[in-house]
């Protein structure tokens, strides 16, 4: 009874099947051939400096005829995606600008090729680069001359503030009356908290504003990269400086507990509602929309913020991560550029690095929005004046401290993400409990890796 | 009404029988002529049969079974892919012991169970309710049914992602609509960010997506009830309420069970939607066990450990699957 | 029996107008609530960036195609002077972009990802339906030893959590260089889909009376000829419905795609959430991608309406 319908169907389905067959054949015949001309793929995070790198790379293509392709991934999935890619021995990336903490794993697992011979051959010396970046981005084991990357993007945590609000006479007067000192960029975290409390909930130009913006992201590295800025300065240590991997009493020292409690207090008193899972991008949004007085973020974004039509220029100021009661550090960011060991285009990739290391290219890199780690650029007499945030950047790079860069870094990081987020955002347990658990987690990770403190 | 009188040796038989109730009859009826033909073409038939089945079995062996066996082996090792240069150690049952004695894992399983129970309960309520209403056959009911069915056909990941926009405290319409009806300031709460709200948020989105699924199956159940049963009940002067409890509900129950078990298994495995919507946060409030597994396997790269966890989950799902098959046994075609 | 009593007698079968009106009102209300989030996304795709993140959310706005333009292009910010120095914009999308002091630098990655989705979706569907149809025919028409066990085994492979399955697959693909390739993803999705295909198609083929084939065999057709000339044409509807179900699965799949692809073979679901613009997630572009991604699914759902129930229950419930 459905003869005609069946006929129609079969004709339709026949066509579809032919199409499918064609598609399958194409699929198995292989993906579109890589390229006719020479081509390199560079992998990095999707953010302002990456756009600058695309601009910069055009010169390389002009010079070498090698076409540059880019694979940029948002920060929240950057580590996830590229560690997966490296681990799978994939061929997506020829060059990778990998995070500082990956270096241990990348070296031990031979995901990157070692650059010592190449540096020697091309007369590139690490003495030309800012020491903190060489230690942070290139060396494994740390403090040994084994190089796996060329410092590509120097970075650290810094702060931006609304200079225009800070300089309003009525606000200044009110602040002085309340706290007995002038309203100025904070030098210590206690000052920062006072200023944040002062601005929290205030109406400015008919809009309710909030005191501070800090990192609280759970999924990747956000809250850890935020909380460490406070922890370091309250006296937190990753392990016993005299006895590596002995963490009891250092990670969870009374000072560290106070630091963690302070971060939570800051989060509770002075941030915008709903900032429960916020990292760089949320901070930029909050600052650009005029919601916050002070913002914690990476220096990498400051050129873009300075250029922002609404909050940039005269309206924005910058300050170094404030000191705490015990110390003065700031969290290291930034990345080195490496050649992926499974790449089929290693020679071209090395050629790119050689090109990138040239002083003239590095100078341009800084000018268009990247952060060079080359001494010739940052130690030049004109550097501090070349951008409003340049002095703070130099000061910060002298006091940076990094998270673990061990091969097991991802485990260490995820454990810290969980413990800190549970305490700060999800209100679970006390700061002491959170850090005690963290010591337990970390001890286990190192034990698995075969690294234990001598006394344990 | 389940008095078919048939019993089955094992769940598989039962499943086949109930899924293709006419098949055995058909097969028996066809047996004779086929046997006659077998003499002529028996060799070619048998080879055709194997030729047709082998590729599927081979593919499943290669992509499912071989990796599974490999994973069982790995679950007894200390393999960590981010440190694959370390010598591979066999650690016996250490990984299993580790998992089963880990309070965090139990809490994650608890969170998962709560999610499963809450979603399934809500979906049954909403889905069954909708099915009852749609079964009134009002005009244009078919059009509206199709609209209601749309969410369950969408990609859960894409759904999870776009609900994050809808739940944004400042710019999202959800808070705004809630504010409109309750007077609560829209930006004063965050559906995905607050410990008290986030678990309900994932339940809400899952219900939005999957209540139609329960509805569709219940609708089939309702339509399978013959009119004469209601007519007989009417003769006996049973109240509509009574009719519902003694006819509608029991007759639909097997279908409902099927829907419940399907949803329970699916939500026990839930990963994509929740991962995109809350990524387990705040803290670990909505971290379902699949998210824990993903973090262990693909972020911490603890392959040995996560293989053991995966096997434990397999066993759990297979346990559930068995119950599922047994319950399917009761669904009868009419 | 009075007329009134009669109408209650059929209360379930044929409801009274008042009951119908009430049912219609509730269902239509629910349908509207259900579809509202989707409509919001479709609308967001036509908002400008600032309208999309406006507070309070905007219901009335000036529609623009910026979201779609942003989805398909990569843009760079330039100084107004530089833009003034360029030759006048010739296309409507150039003009749209330049209004924001940007110029189009090239196409975005969305097309390659879309092509990946198409190739992997159609490729795995084709293979799954092909293998599934053969196996289903064999299970339906021949006596296969341990047939029920095999069928159960085929189904059970679908019950494993995808993240768990991905662990050994990841290791295996890494060894075979199949990570992030079309072939790898097609094979994997075929394996997942083939169980659905076997179960659904066996149901459809069981419904085709054997007498047709018998007649053909008596007429001197070989078994394969009978299959092609008699069974296949009858099963076409079932095959098409099965194919659409397989396609929808591959199209929507996220867990395997995010864990086993990184770029070359990445499909749309892991890509869409990470479409970002200058200031965070570019919601109009994300919404535009979501809309385009979902349209085929909506069409298929309408097309499949009659077989939907069968598909989602592995053929356990037929209508």
Descriptive notes:
The complex is a heterotrimer of chains A (about 450), B (about 325) and C (about 325). Chain A has 20 helices and 13 strands. By secondary structure, chain A is of the alpha/beta class. Chain A has two domains: about 40-155 and about 335-395, D-Maltodextrin-Binding Protein, domain 2; about 155-330, 3-Layer(aba) Sandwich (D-Maltodextrin-Binding Protein, domain 2). Mean pLDDT of chain A is about 90; it is low at about 1-5. Chain B has 13 helices and no strands. Chain C is mostly helical and about 325 residues long. Chain C has two domains: about 50-110, no CATH class; about 110-270 and about 295-310, MetI-like (MetI-like fold). Chain C contains 16 helices and two strands. The chains are: A alpha/beta (about 450), B mainly alpha (about 325), C mainly alpha (about 325). Chains B and C meet through helix 1, helix 2, helix 4, helix 5 and helix 6 of B and helix 2, helix 7, helix 8, helix 9 and helix 10 of C.
């Amino acid at each position: 009874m459905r003869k005609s319908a069946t006929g129609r169907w079969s004709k339709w389905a026949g066509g579809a099947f032919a199409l499918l067959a064609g598609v399958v054949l194409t699929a198995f015949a292989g993906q579109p051939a890589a390229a006719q001309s020479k081509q390199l793929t560079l992998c990095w995070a999707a953010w302002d400096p990456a756009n600058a790198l695309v601009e910069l790379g055009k010169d390389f293509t002009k010079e070498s005829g090698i076409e540059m392709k880019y694979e940029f991934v948002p920060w929240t999935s950057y580590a996830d995606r590229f560690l997966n890619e490296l681990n799978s021995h994939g061929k997506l990336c020829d060059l990778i600008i990998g995070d500082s903490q990956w270096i241990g794993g990348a070296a031990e697992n031979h995901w990157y090729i070692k650059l010592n011979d190449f540096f020697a051959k091309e007369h590139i010396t690490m003495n030309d680069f800012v020491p903190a970046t060489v230690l942070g981005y290139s060396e494994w084991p740390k403090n040994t001359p084994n190089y796996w990357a060329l410092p590509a993007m120097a970075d650290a945590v810094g702060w931006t503030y609304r200079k225009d609000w800070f300089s309003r006479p009525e606000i200044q007067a009110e602040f002085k009356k309340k706290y007995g000192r002038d309203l100025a960029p904070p030098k210590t975290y206690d000052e920062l908290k006072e200023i944040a409390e002062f601005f929290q909930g205030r109406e400015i130009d008919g809009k309710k504003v909030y005191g501070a913006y800090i990192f609280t992201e759970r999924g990747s590295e956000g809250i850890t990269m935020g909380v460490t800025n406070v922890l370091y300065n309250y006296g937190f240590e990753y392990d016993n400086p005299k006895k590596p991997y002995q963490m009891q009493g250092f990670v969870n020292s009374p000072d560290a507990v106070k630091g963690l409690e302070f971060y939570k207090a800051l989060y509770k008193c002075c941030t915008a509602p709903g900032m429960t899972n916020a990292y760089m991008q949320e901070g930029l949004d909050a600052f650009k929309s005029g919601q916050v007085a002070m913002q914690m973020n990476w220096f990498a974004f400051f050129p873009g913020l300075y250029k922002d039509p609404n909050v940039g220029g005269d309206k924005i100021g910058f300050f170094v991560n404030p000191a705490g009661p015990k110390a003065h550090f700031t969290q290291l960011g930034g990345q080195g550029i490496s050649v992926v060991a499974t790449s089929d285009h290693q020679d071209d990739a090395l050629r790119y690095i050689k090109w990138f290391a040239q002083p003239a290219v590095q100078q341009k890199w800084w000018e268009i929005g990247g952060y060079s780690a080359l001494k010739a650029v940052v130690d030049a007499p004109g550097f501090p004046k070349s951008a409003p945030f340049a002095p703070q950047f130099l000061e910060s790079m002298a006091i940076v401290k990094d998270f673990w860069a061990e091969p097991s870094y991802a485990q260490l990081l995820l454990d810290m993400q969980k413990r800190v987020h549970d305490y700060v955002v999800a209100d679970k347990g006390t700061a002491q409990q959170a850090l005690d658990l963290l010591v337990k987690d970390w001890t286990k990770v190192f034990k698995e890796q075969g690294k234990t403190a001598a006394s344990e | 009404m389940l008095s078919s009188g048939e019993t089955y040796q094992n769940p598989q038989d039962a499943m086949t029988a109930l899924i293709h109730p006419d098949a055995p009859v058909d097969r028996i009826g066809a047996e004779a002529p086929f046997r006659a033909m077998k003499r002529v073409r028996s060799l070619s038939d048998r080879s055709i049969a194997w030729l047709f089945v082998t590729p599927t079995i081979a593919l499943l062996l290669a992509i499912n079974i071989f990796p599974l066996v490999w994973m069982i082996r790995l679950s007894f090792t200390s393999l960590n892919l981010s440190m694959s240069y370390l010598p591979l150690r066999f650690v016996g049952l250490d990984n299993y012991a580790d998992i089963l004695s880990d309070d965090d894992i139990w809490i994650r399983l608890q969170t998962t169970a709560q999610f499963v129970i809450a979603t399934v309960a809500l979906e049954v309520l909403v889905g069954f309710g909708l099915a009852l209403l749609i079964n009134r056959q009002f005009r244009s009911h078919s059009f509206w049914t199709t609209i209601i069915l749309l969410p369950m056909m969408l990609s859960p990941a894409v759904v999870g992602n776009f609900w994050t926009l809808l739940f944004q405290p400042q710019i999202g319409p959800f808070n705004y609509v809630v504010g409109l009806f309750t007077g609560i300031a829209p930006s004063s709460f965050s559906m995905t960010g607050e410990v008290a709200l986030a678990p309900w948020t994932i339940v809400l989105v899952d219900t939005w997506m999957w209540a139609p699924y329960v509805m569709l199956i219940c609708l089939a159940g309702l339509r399978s009830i013959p009119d004469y049963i209601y007519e007989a009940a009417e003769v006996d002067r049973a109240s509509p309420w009574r009719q519902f409890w003694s006819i509608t509900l029991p007759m639909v129950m097997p279908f409902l069970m099927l829907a419940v078990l399907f949803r329970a298994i699916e939500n026990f495995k839930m990963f994509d939607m929740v991962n995109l919507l809350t990524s387990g946060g705040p803290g670990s409030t909505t971290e379902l066990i699949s998210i824990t597994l993903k973090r262990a396997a693909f972020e911490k790269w603890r392959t040995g450990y996560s293989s053991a966890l995966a096997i434990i989950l397999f066993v759990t799902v297979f346990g559930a699957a068995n119950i599922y098959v047994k319950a399917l046994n009761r669904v009868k075609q009419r | 029996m009075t007329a009134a009593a009669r109408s209650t007698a059929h209360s379930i079968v044929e409801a009274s107008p008042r009951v119908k009106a009430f049912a219609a009102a509730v269902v239509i209300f629910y349908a509207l609530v259900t579809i509202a989030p989707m409509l919001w996304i479709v609308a967001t795709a036509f908002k400008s960036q600032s309208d999309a993140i406006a507070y309070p959310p905007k219901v009335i706005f000036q529609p623009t195609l910026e979201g779609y333009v942003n989805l398909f292009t990569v843009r760079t910010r330039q100084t107004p002077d530089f833009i003034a120095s360029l030759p006048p914009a010739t296309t409507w999308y150039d003009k749209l972009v330049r209004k924001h002091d940007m110029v189009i630098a090239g196409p975005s990655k969305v097309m390659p990802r879309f092509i990946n989705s198409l190739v992997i979706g159609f490729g795995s569907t084709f293979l799954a339906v092909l293998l599934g149809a053969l196996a289903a025919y064999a299970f339906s028409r021949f006596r296969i030893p341990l047939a029920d066990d095999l069928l159960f085994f085929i189904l059970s492979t679908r019950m494993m959590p995808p993240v768990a399955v991905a662990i050994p697959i990841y290791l295996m693909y890494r060894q075979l260089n199949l990570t992030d390739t079309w072939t790898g993803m097609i094979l994997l999705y075929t394996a997942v889909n083939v169980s659905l295909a076997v179960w659904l198609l066996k149901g459809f083929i069981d419904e085709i009376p054997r007498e047709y084939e018998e007649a053909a065999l008596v007429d001197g057709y070989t078994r394969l000829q009978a299959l092609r000339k008699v069974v296949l044409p009858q099963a076409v509807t079932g095959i098409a419905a099965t194919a659409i179900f397989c396609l929808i699965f591959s199209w929507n799949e996220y867990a395997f795609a995010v864990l086993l692809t990184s770029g070359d073979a990445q499909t749309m679901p892991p890509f869409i959430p990470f479409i970002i613009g200058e200031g965070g997630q570019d919601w109009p572009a994300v919404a535009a991608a979501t809309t385009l991604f979902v349209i085929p699914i909506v069409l298929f759902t309408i097309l499949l309406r009659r077989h939907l129930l069968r598909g989602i229950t592995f053929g356990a419930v037929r209508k």
